[in-house]
Amino acid sequence: RVDLLNSLNNLSKEQLHFKPAPDSWSIIETLHHLYLSEQGTHLYMSKKMQNVEELPKSRFKNAYRVFLLKWFLRSNKKFKIPR
């Protein structure tokens, strides 16, 4: 994160807000999206960690899904994400 922010210090305001295409995001929009995503994930995880004892036990089906997800993420395949 520090390296990313240091590399952005050299960019002008125009560069940070530049969109290479009308339907694409600028650097600043991408960073804002990453910030909001990280913040939301942190809040969700914090909420879940408050009542760990009340969470349902994980089942084999969930372990299998995690295995598949990790396998797909390590592969070189590209997947379409839902809208």
Distance between the termini: 28 Å
Structural class: mainly alpha
Strand portion, in percent? under 5%
Q: Tally of extended strands?
A: 0
Helix content: 55-70%
- Largest beta sheet, briefly? none
Q: In sequence order, what are the helices and strands, one letter per element?
A: HHHH
**How large is the radius of gyration?**
19 Å
Task: Please write out the topology.
Layout lengths: L1 H7 L4 H5 L9 H24 L9 H15 L9
Overview of this structure, please?
This protein has four helices and no strands. The protein is mostly helical and 83 residues long. 0% of the residues are buried. The mean pLDDT is 90.
Short recap of the structure:
The protein is mostly helical. Helices cover 61% and strands 0% of the residues. The protein starts with a helix and ends in a 9-residue tail after the last helix.
